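Figure caption, in words: inputs first, then the predicted bound structure.
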Amino acid sequence: MNKKNIAIFGSTGSIGKMALSIAKNYKEFFNVSAISAGSNIDLLSEQIKEFHPKYVSISNPEKYQEFLYKYPNLLENINLFSGDDGMLKILENIKIDLLIIAVVGISGLLPLYKALDMGINVASANKEPIVVAGNFLLKKTKEKNNFIFPIDSEHSAIFQCLLGEEKKYIKKLIITASGGPFFFTPYKDLENVKISHVLNHPRWKMGPKVTIDSATLMNKAFEVIEARFLFDIEKEKIDVIIHPESIIHSMVEFVDGSYKAELAPTDMKIPIQYAMSYPERLVKTFDTDENLNSLDLKKIKSLNFYDLDINDEKFKCFKLAIQSLEAGNDYLVVLNAADEFLVNEFLKGTISFLDIPKYLNEILSKHSSVKIKNINDIFELDKKTKKILETIIKK
Ligand code: NDP
Ligand code: MG
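Bound structure (magnesium ion present):
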């Protein structure tokens, strides 16, 4: 494999750290040219010392100021940017072979859009931009003959199943879902759910936002929406199936009755490394969970599957999200903004777990259709939605 110059946006997060650990294992193949953080300047400073990136961005302006006086000796060797457009400035300044987007929320949208426009190879774990701006991103990829390489394990699985296949032969994309921590919990018991219960995902160790989204199944709905736009496929051709072991990461059914599935130990480093090494594969050098390290099917013996009943009150968020996909782009923006806001409120302890679907329903029912003409409109509607929710919750 030729050595790649890579940039990692969101290097201080769960996915970003794993991407850096792969770069560290394979120094001969990856040179870390740029990294970016939101607020965690202490971890960022460690990463700068270890990986020597030439370009760095800190989105939070106060943390940027703090960095300047706390780490003056690091400033000599880096070009440092700050604010919302820090990541964009990096893109304008460097030549890279691969951009990895691992930020959370729609802060990844502008860098993703710009990277596609500039013809940069981009791999994204960040799903929210695809949820809110799928149409625009799809149009841009077609115009530039570019592609968003998926890091999310389900989409990486589908991508691998589709290698060498033509789109016309796809009958269904079947996304697997672990079901999250509450799949087997009765609805009434969800009233007393604590933050610590939700953060305890049975299969994956992830950042807080995606962990809460996994418990409400919003994450799964986001993945359906992500698949709709990443693979440019009708939503009717996307199914979800509950698979608690999370060993089959997703499947594709073809028109001739064949199915392809991708199986792997439950470790995000596998799809991250594949996104980084593609089209080549690198030997796995990290240890996954000891029971799952080599996916010993003789030990695992059986894999289980369940139907996802979207009319079950427990999965209200999933249903609202799929209805938003049907209702149009503006509904997806409202959905995503509301979800981000409500997850945050839940993490702060101001609302309960079941308040998430309750307020989500309320804000979506209040929304009257508007045309989203450009990316700017998305940010406007995002802000407006969060403001309305703030007043609703205060009441
Ligand atoms: P984390 O919360 O662990 O990390 C988020 C990263 O984004 C951090 O580096 C954080 O910086 C940075 N960040 C936060 N806010 C901003 C901002 N406003 N501007 C710029 N950067 C910001 O999240 P995850 O790594 O778990 O998830 C990242 C994305 O990947 C999400 O979209 C998620 O849905 C998706 N994903 C995650 C999976 C996982 O296993 N974790 C699996 C599949 C998809 P800092 O910490 O310095 O503030
Ligand atoms: Mg996933």
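The longest strand covers residues 30-37.
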